[in-house]
Amino acid sequence: MTVLLLRLAGPMQAWGVRSRFTERRTELAPSKSGVIGMLAAAAGRRRTDPIEDLLSLRFGVRKDQPGTVIRDFHTARTLDGKAPMPLSSRYYLADAVFLAGIEGDCELLSGLDEALRHPVFPLYLGRRSCPPPHPLSLGLREADLLDALRSEPWQASEWFRRRQRSEQPFMAEVLVDQESVAVEERGDSYGVRDVPVSYDPRRRDYGFRNVERRMVPVGPAQGDPHDPMAALKEAIPCS
């Protein structure tokens, strides 16, 4: 199978699945509906255009740098400034880095890869105030989705790597469509309403998908390079 890999990073991200009214929450990882919407925007599709071919794609994400949830107490006024808009709380993920994988037809993914490099519409990480840095696409891999998410190098920022002072590799959480996991390897799963049946603002509709959770080691062990006994060891032969 072919997998398109994306590096989703930026100062802020917001992936809402259950947000309603004045509470605009964020999931702790990119949603399938959000990433499929970004691919559609890159290809120049409008909200009312068909997306059936995109719904055949399988999706998974790896949390290389989980980030921190922050809250923005949001105020706004009408365009003429005469009336206040409802107060709202908007939540974001700050300083997060994710590796997202999309598995499917090679020709379709090749076109989406090219579209991400030259997008028709502006792209954002779940919310319009969260633009992604470029390059967004890491290219295509010939592998199963779960294997691609296991084997790709760690995408975390350098400052986050330095904080991982452990003798063991960093363990990253992977959330993946259950249908992309071999039947004999499947475990417990949970359902989430995150399949974008329609983006049409007049009748937005989402279906359910089953998600499996795995923990995979990424990156080398980050042992503490500071050894206070090193100088003493060097001095002993000279005494």
Automatic annotation (TrEMBL):
Lineage top rank: taxon: Bacteria
One MF annotation (Gene Ontology) recorded for this entry: RNA binding
BP GO annotations: defense response to virus; maintenance of CRISPR repeat elements
InterPro entries (alphabetical): CRISPR-assoc_prot_Cas5, CRISPR-assoc_prot_Cas5_N, CRISPR-assoc_prot_CasD
Keywords: Antiviral defense
Protein name listed in UniProt: Type I-E CRISPR-associated protein Cas5/CasD
Organism from which the protein derives: Actinomyces respiraculi
Gene: cas5e
